[in-house]
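May I ask for a protein sequence together with how it folds?
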Amino acid sequence: MLKDYQGTLKDLNKTHVLERNDACTLSMHGDIKGMLKNYQGVLEDLDKVHVFEPNNTCTLNTHGHVK
């Protein structure tokens, strides 16, 4: 793995513009932010997923760990 987290985040940002309500993209976006130790950013992305997928247990579990 190349660990180009900034490059991956840029790519996901482009995708996120096109797919604003895509839980998978937002979750990956949050994962990358976590690898960059941007924990506030992780919570923001998970909160967005929770708005349109309130029963997504994966994001709820991750949200609890980040807090």
